[in-house]
Design brief:
312 residues; mainly alpha; Na+/H+ antiporter like fold; 12 helices; globular
Length: 312
């Protein structure tokens, strides 16, 4: 079963995200998104972190650790990707701002049709084919089917059947959690990542990329004067990227047609898969620290929980 996981990984991810976003929708109202619109600095911070800070960190690590071109391009590709749909799930687990997380994912993913190309051509233009274009159809599909439709369906159910919406939403989130556990176990069991094939500096570069982005986002959150909820949400959005989109780009950018491209594409693939695993661990860590703080501080925690989480 696990050996064939890459063949149906996309369907597991789609079902996971649809269940999670529907469950989140049953906790949201339009007022939550108005609050995000009233504080655009949060979205600005996430965009700056993804488009400027991430690529600069990737370039700096590549030069500092003398990484090969394939690994360097892999790091850059990761930082050029928008936030992944998994970030919305970890925002829910972290009791962060779901409305901000969903808004940031939607805005950054739509914007990636321009920004990802811009970042890659600026820092890795020598390795890109001249006719490179973003898969607009896939991006619009992810936004509409995996994010907006289940979210709107959940919000509509809450509006018309509020008593039934909350229990159903809880069960959907539990189902998404079960699928997430299955996803993690299956990803590990497939053995797609050969850890022994790459030297220690390469492992270190990917781990440092996750850690530096996370802590740099904390510093920027202090500069932008964000709340705790906004800071945690921004951390998750910046760290967890849309690796599935990265796999699609890698297949189109570096097809396995020659010895050089096979080696180059394999290096990029390793970075994408390894980063995906490390970012999931970071997501669980951020959620765990957040929940520990809430339990430790209790009523002394600054500010009430967001309206969408008061009943959870």
């Amino acid at each position: 079963m696990f050996a064939d996981f890459p063949e149906y990984e996309f369907f597991v991810t789609s079902a996971l995200c649809a269940l999670a976003l529907f469950g989140m929708g049953t906790t949201l109202t339009s007022e939550a998104f108005r609050g995000v619109a009233d504080r655009p600095r949060c979205l600005v911070l996430i965009l700056v972190s993804q488009l400027v800070m991430g690529p600069l960190v990737a370039v700096g690590l590549s030069k500092l650790l003398y990484l090969s071109p394939g690994i360097s391009v892999g790091l850059l590709l990761v930082t050029a990707l928008p936030g992944g749909l998994f970030s919305n799930i970890f925002a829910l687990y972290s009791k962060a701002s779901i409305a901000l997380s969903v808004s940031a994912t939607a805005v950054c993913t739509l914007g990636s049709m321009v920004t990802t190309t811009l970042v890659l051509k600026t820092f890795a233009g020598d390795y890109l084919p001249g006719d490179f274009e973003m898969p607009a159809g896939r991006i619009l599909f992810d936004i509409s089917v995996n994010l907006l439709l289940p979210l709107v369906a959940g919000m509509t159910l809450r509006r018309h059947l509020p008593l039934q919406a909350m229990p159903l939403g809880r069960w959907c989130v539990r189902g998404a959690t079960a699928l997430l556990i299955f996803y993690v176990v299956a990803s590990v069991q497939t053995g797609r990542i050969n850890l022994t094939a790459y030297a220690f500096p390469i492992h270190l570069s990917i781990i440092l990329l996750v850690v530096i982005q996370s802590y740099a986002c904390v510093v920027l959150s202090w500069v932008f004067r964000l709340t705790v909820l906004e800071r945690v949400t921004s951390q998750i959005e910046v760290v967890i990227r849309n690796v599935h989109l990265g796999l699609l780009l890698n297949a189109s950018l570096f097809p396995f047609t020659s010895d050089r491209s096979d080696h180059f594409g394999s290096d990029v693939l390793f970075v994408l898969l390894y980063y995906g695993g490390v970012s999931l661990i970071a997501g669980f860590a951020i959620a765990g620290v957040r929940r520990f703080d809430l339990r430790r501080l209790g009523d002394r925690h600054p500010g009430p929980p967001p309206p969408e989480l008061r009943d959870w």
